[in-house]
Specification:
heterodimer, A: mainly alpha, MetI-like fold, 13 helices, globular, B: mainly alpha, 74% helix
Chain lengths: 328, 276
C-alpha cells in the first residue's frame, strides 16, 4: 500500500467517526439532544441565548439528511457547536486545551521511547542475567497496572507526602511571570508528575517490545557475520542489533499513540491538568454534549493523524513494505 | 497440556480470593453498604475499620460489595467479547472466501477506531447503567479476539482429521462444535482472561471519569467520590478511602493479566523460552 491509499483509508475511517458522532445521539433511545430543548426534561437549558444557539446548531426540526449536511459543513469550517456549561464555542475550548495534551503526550512519548530503546537493547544483550529478569518482571507489572493507580501513587508520594511538586494544574493559578523563562519553569514543574506517570505507563509495553525485537535480531545470521568481522561490541549492539529492532518499534508507534491519549485522559483527570482529558471529564460531569462530541472528534483526529504519520515513517524505514519497488 | 506456570497459580489464587469475598459479601461486610451507619468522614475505628465516606457509609462494606461489581463486569464483558470474537472470527476462518474478506475488513476498521474516545461517546449517550457499560466494552473489544480466532480456525480447518470428518459426511455445525471448538479451546481461555482484565480496567476507568452507573457502587465509583472531596490529599484520609479501592482494582487486573501471560506461554512454547 502506498501513501495515497493509506491516506484514503484514514480519511474513510475519519468519515465513519464523523458519522457515528452525528448519528449516535440522534438515533439512541432517550434523545439526549432533544431533551436539552424540552422544558419538561431535567437536562433543559434555561439560558435562552444558549438554547437558541443549540437549536440552530443541531437543527433537530429539519430532516435528517439536511442536519447531516449542515453538520459536515460546520465541521469543515471549524464549527463544533457551543458549550452549554460555558456558553463559548467548542472550537475555542479545544484550542485552549489541546496544546496541554500535546505537550504531555509528546513529552511522555519522547522519554518512554528513549528509555525503552536504551534499556530494551541492553536487557536483550544480557538476556538471562538478573538485571534482565528484573527489568522484564518490572515491565510486565508496569504494563498491566492501570494508569490512574500509578498516577495516584506518584501524586501521593511526591505531591502529598514529600511536597516536592505541585498537586494539580498546568501552572500556578493567577501567577504573573517576570520572564518567559520563569513561565517555562513553572509549566515544567507542573508537567513533571503527569508526564512521569504517562512515561511509566507506556514504558512497560515499549520495553518488552524492544527487548523481544532485539532478542530476535540477535539470532540472525548477519549478527554472527558482523561479530566474525571483529566489529567492536558497541557497533554490534547499537549499530546492528538496535537498528534492526527499530522497525517493529516504529510499527507499534501508532498503537502507542492511542495508548498515550487514553492514558492522558485519566492522568489529566487525576492531576487536574488543563488538557483535553480534563475538558472531557468536566463536560461529562455537566452533561455538556456539544463539548463531549467536539472533544471526541478532535481526539480521534489526533489519534488517526498519529497513526498515519507512524505508517509513513514505517514506509520510509522499511523498503519491504513498499510494493512495486517505488522508491519513497 | 503443559504444566501451568507460577503466574497462572498466583493469578488464580488472587481471583479465587476476590470471588470468595464477592460471594460471601453479606457475611463479611459489617454493614449494608448503602446504610448510613456512621457520621460522615469518620476516621478508622473499631466500628468502621476503614472509616466512613462523605455521607457516612461504611467504606469497608462498600469495598467488599464492590468486588461483586468488578467480577460481574469481568465475567459478563469478558464472555461477551469472546463470544462476539468467536462468532465473527470463527465464521470468517471457517467459511473463508468473500465472507472472510468482508468480516476481516470490518475487524480492521474497528481496530483502527480510537477506543477510549468511542467508549466515552457511547457511554455518554447510551446512559450509564452497568448493562450498558458491559455491552459497550464487549462491542469495542471483540475485534482483537476475532482476529486471533480466525487465524487459528483457518489452520485447524486444513488439518487431516477435520477434512476427513467432512469426507465422511459430517455437517458443518458438527465439525465446528466437535473438532474446531476443542482445538481452539486454550485460545478461548486466554481470550476470556485477557478480555476480562481489560473490562475490569475499563469499567473502573469509566466510573472514575463519571460515566459509570451512579447507583452501583463499584471500586471505580468509590475512587471518584474520594477524589471529589476537596483537599483529599491535604489530610491522610486518602489512605483508607482512595487507596483500598485503587489497590483492589489493580490487584484484580494484575491477577487476570498474569493468568493471561501464563496461558499465552502455554499456547506458544516459543514465547516461554523467550522470557527466560
Amino acid at each position: 500500500m502506498g501513501v495515497g491509499r493509506r491516506a484514503f483509508v484514514y480519511l474513510l475511517t475519519f468519515w465513519v467517526i464523523l458519522t457515528l458522532n452525528f448519528l449516535l445521539p440522534r438515533l439512541l433511545p432517550g434523545d439526549p439532544l432533544a431533551a436539552l430543548l424540552d422544558p419538561s426534561s431535567s437536562d433543559y437549558v434555561y439560558d435562552p441565548q444558549v438554547r437558541a444557539a443549540l437549536a440552530a446548531y443541531y437543527g433537530l426540526d429539519r430532516p435528517l439528511p439536511e442536519q447531516y449536511g449542515r453538520y459536515l459543513l460546520g465541521i469543515l469550517t471549524g464549527d463544533l457547536g457551543r458549550s452549554i456549561r460555558l456558553n463559548r464555542p467548542v472550537a475555542e475550548l479545544v484550542v485552549g486545551h489541546l496544546p496541554w495534551t500535546l505537550l504531555l503526550v509528546g513529552t511522555a512519548l519522547l522519554f518512554s521511547s528513549a528509555l525503552a530503546l536504551l534499556a530494551g537493547t541492553e536487557s536483550a544483550w544480557r538476556r538471562g542475567s538478573w538485571a534482565d529478569r528484573g527489568l522484564v518482571s518490572a515491565s510486565i507489572l508496569l504494563a498491566n497496572v492501570p494508569v490512574y493507580f500509578a498516577g495516584m501513587m506518584l501524586l501521593l508520594l511526591f505531591g502529598a507526602r514529600l511536597r516536592w511538586l505541585p498537586l494539580a494544574g498546568g501552572r500556578t493559578p493567577f501567577a504573573r511571570y517576570p520572564s518567559a523563562l520563569a513561565a517555562a519553569l513553572d509549566i515544567g514543574r507542573h508537567l513533571i508528575l503527569p508526564a512521569l506517570t504517562l512515561t511509566l505507563a507506556m514504558l512497560g509495553a515499549k520495553f518488552l517490545l524492544v527487548r523481544n525485537a532485539t532478542v530476535n535480531v540477535l539470532g540472525e545470521d548477519f549478527m554472527l557475520v558482523a561479530r566474525a568481522k571483529g566489529l567492536p561490541e558497541g557497533r554490534l549492539k547499537w549499530g546492528h542489533a538496535l537498528r534492526n529492532a527499530l522497525l517493529p518499534f516504529v510499527a507499534h508507534l501508532a498503537a502507542h499513540a492511542g495508548m498515550a491519549v487514553t492514558g492522558a485522559v485519566f492522568i489529566e483527570t487525576l492531576f487536574s491538568y488543563p488538557g483535553m482529558g480534563r475538558l472531557i471529564f468536566e463536560s461529562v460531569t455537566a452533561r455538556d454534549y456539544p463539548v463531549i462530541q467536539g472533544a471526541f472528534l478532535v481526539v480521534s483526529a489526533v489519534v488517526l493523524t498519529a497513526n498515519f504519520l507512524a505508517d509513513i515513517i514505517n514506509l520510509h524505514l522499511d523498503p519491504r513494505l513498499r510494493e512495486g519497488g517505488a522508491v519513497g | 497440556m503443559r504444566r501451568l506456570g507460577g503466574e497462572v497459580w498466583f493469578g488464580l489464587i488472587l481471583l479465587a480470593l476476590c470471588s470468595a469475598v464477592a460471594v460471601l459479601a453479606p457475611v463479611l461486610a459489617p454493614y449494608d453498604p448503602r446504610a448510613f451507619s456512621g457520621q460522615p468522614l469518620e476516621r478508622p475505628s473499631r466500628a468502621h475499620p476503614l472509616g466512613t465516606n462523605d455521607v457516612g457509609q461504611d467504606i469497608l462494606s462498600e469495598l467488599i460489595y464492590g468486588a461483586r461489581v468488578s467480577l460481574t463486569v469481568a465475567l459478563a464483558a469478558g464472555a461477551g467479547t469472546v463470544l462476539l470474537g468467536l462468532l465473527v472470527g470463527g465464521m470468517a476462518g471457517y467459511a473463508g472466501g468473500w465472507l472472510d474478506q468482508a468480516l476481516m475488513r470490518l475487524v480492521d476498521g474497528m481496530l483502527s477506531l480510537p477506543r477510549l474516545p468511542l467508549l466515552i461517546l457511547f457511554a455518554t449517550f447510551l446512559g450509564s447503567g452497568l448493562p450498558q457499560t458491559i455491552a459497550v466494552i464487549s462491542f469495542l473489544f471483540w475485534p482483537t479476539t476475532a482476529r486471533v480466532v480466525r487465524a487459528q480456525v483457518q489452520s485447524v480447518r486444513q488439518r487431516g482429521y477435520v477434512r476427513m470428518a467432512r469426507q465422511f459426511g459430517a455437517s458443518h455445525p458438527y465439525v465446528f462444535l466437535r473438532h474446531i471448538l476443542p482445538a481452539i479451546g486454550p485460545l478461548i481461555a486466554y481470550g476470556l482472561v485477557t478480555s476480562a482484565g481489560h473490562a475490569v480496567a475499563m469499567e473502573a476507568g469509566l466510573a472514575f471519569l463519571g460515566l459509570g452507573d451512579p447507583l452501583v457502587k463499584s471500586w471505580g465509583l468509590m475512587m471518584r467520590f474520594a477524589l471529589n472531596l476537596p483537599g483529599l490529599f491535604l489530610t491522610d484520609r486518602w489512605l483508607w478511602w482512595l487507596l483500598p479501592p485503587a489497590l483492589c482494582v489493580t490487584l484484580l487486573i494484575l491477577a487476570l493479566a498474569l493468568m493471561g501471560i501464563g496461558l499465552e506461554q502455554n499456547l506458544n512454547p516459543r514465547l516461554a523460552r523467550r522470557w527466560r
